[in-house]
Amino acid sequence: MRTLLIDNYDSYTYNIYQLVAEVSGTEPVVVKNDACSFEELAVHTFDQIIISPGPGRPERAVDMGLSKEVIEKARVPVLGICLGHQGIAYHFGANIVHAPEVMHGRLSPIYHNDDPLFRGIPQGAEVVRYHSLVVEQETIPKDLEVIAWTKAHTVMGLRHKTLPLWAVQYHPESICTDSGKRLLTNFCDLTRSFHRNKVAAKCQPPKVDRSPSLIQPSSAFQVTVKEMPFHRSEAVFQTLFSKSKHAFWLDSSKTGDAARYSFMGDDAGPNSHVVTYDTSTGILKFVFKDREETRQESIFSYLKRQLHMLKSHDEWPFPFHCGYVGYFGYELKRECNNVTNIYQADTPDAAFLFADRMLVFDHVDEKMYAVCFSGKEDRTLREAWFSEIENHLQNLKDPRTQTKKGKPLSTTCNKSYQQYCANIEKVQAYLKDGETYELNYTTRLRTNLDVASLDLYQHLRRVNPAPYAAYMSFNRLSVLCSSPEKFITIDRRGHVCTKPIKGTMRRGSSPEEDEQLKKALETSEKDRAENLMIVDLLRNDLGKLCQVGQVRVPQLMEVESYQTVHQLVSTVTGILRDGVTAIDCIQATFPGGSMTGAPKVRTMSLIDSLEGESRGIYSGAIGYFSLDGTADFNIVIRTIVLEEGRATIGVGGAVTVQSTAAGEYEEMWLKASALVQAMEEVSCK
């Protein structure tokens, strides 16, 4: 069965793709709603067409694009979902009006008239709704029949009485919708019935680029590992790398199953170099030991080629075996989502260090390893470096940060309270008009702070220990990160995991209050709706690259507790298709949906108009690409960017229709509190 899936620039389209591929046995052909005309598509044979959800209104041609032509001209079964549902109703004469209540990421029971589309779906099945507009029931023409509704009689499903057109207002593809797969199975059955006397065209799945790299893997290098006596990572970094011009410390300062390893190193190795990237010019800048170079090339294509060329097949008891470590800044959205950047960051849009020598800390087994990537003939150099590390470890300085009562800093916010609240109200208007389901609105806090960046980081990791923390130094630029949020991990078998955080609550002053606040977060409809929307978005992003039926949600909206806050956390996993690399996966999912909102593309353009400046490193991702094909990146939150005596903190949160301006402002300062505390402590020394 050949399915055409029209993507109205929604962030849930590939959840539909995955479900349809499962139930029909063939993968749909996905076409953006502005990619071509209906006539250009007409040369192909499709057995059925699905019109995806999307932002905007069906009355606006730019929001519907090709979807409008399909409704007008298609003569095969069509299923419209959300915006597609409204588009079908509008085309035949119904009015589209504001809903009595905005329903973004919220659940409702629905009822139906036993239409074949709902065969096997129980009355009162819970479904997820992402809409602020509805079909006005009083204006539905006689050609259309209402086949599903809510308790409040909001229209949830339609069918045309004589044409093969069906529509549902809710999202059958959401992880929390009951019987979503059943509905799409029924639609496929309706299509088979429609074509009973026809021979369905054989579907060809979307092509994945599996062409070989122009550069073949090198066999002249090897990764060598030597176990060292275990020491505290803080003391080791202070002794070995604190004076390095370029250095990294991927620091599991809050250890546990989710954060077993820490990694550190610098640019002292003979093969090490630093590469930075400016997305506005497309220029890479390289810093080697003896020279600097520039090149016109995307950071993604460069990293992909290098990692292919240096591919290692060795297996070690830890996941990072040398490779590229650094960050992607938020403005790389331009190259990942084909969107325009209104603002340019002051910092590089990406910065990576090639780590050919590094130290690994296994905090569970209390083991430490020195890892060296070098030429196979360079045994003398390797042994000399291992000996140097052993000598340093015998003379460690053990820094101990002391808690001090800090003096208040003059921290300025780039938005006044009045401006902040006014922008929250603008977001609420966008939500009510269907332009976005959820928008992550952020602001910047800045202060003058002439301190040693490592000293400040040592205070931060004590005040706010986090499983995905990091300290990175790129000459005069330092990144001090205490992130609790995993963006994405890819192992050497292509197994992918992402852990979005949406929903924050302060810790209580007593065990009893703490438990009450934890329970309040766990049951908050607002926070659960925020989290659900991002879970569905990440399922969509992984669904673009993962094998059919392999995107799963093993953990949905569970509370994890950190030093200063409780967080609502989910886990989404998948298995990549053959030939898809870690670079492909990062590029397809960046920036993390928890930092944008949904639908991602439309929402990012709204963010630019509201925030009025670039985000830079904040909202991006810090992590590594290992030579064996693995990767691990965080979401850059709870982070101080320090450059030339100026500290910048990005902070914000998801805004939904259930948000209040005062509540969002309070949450913003709650998230910044640990960072401000660390800066105040170190400023009084």
Automatic annotation (TrEMBL):
Residues 417-671 form the Chorismate-utilising enzyme C-terminal domain. GO terms for molecular function: 4-amino-4-deoxychorismate synthase activity. Residues 235-369 form the Anthranilate synthase component I N-terminal domain. CDD domains: GATase1_Anthranilate_Synthase. Its EC number is 2.6.1.85. Transmembrane segments: none annotated. One of its GO terms (biological process) is 4-aminobenzoate biosynthetic process. In the C-terminal section; belongs to the anthranilate synthase component I family. This is aminodeoxychorismate synthase.
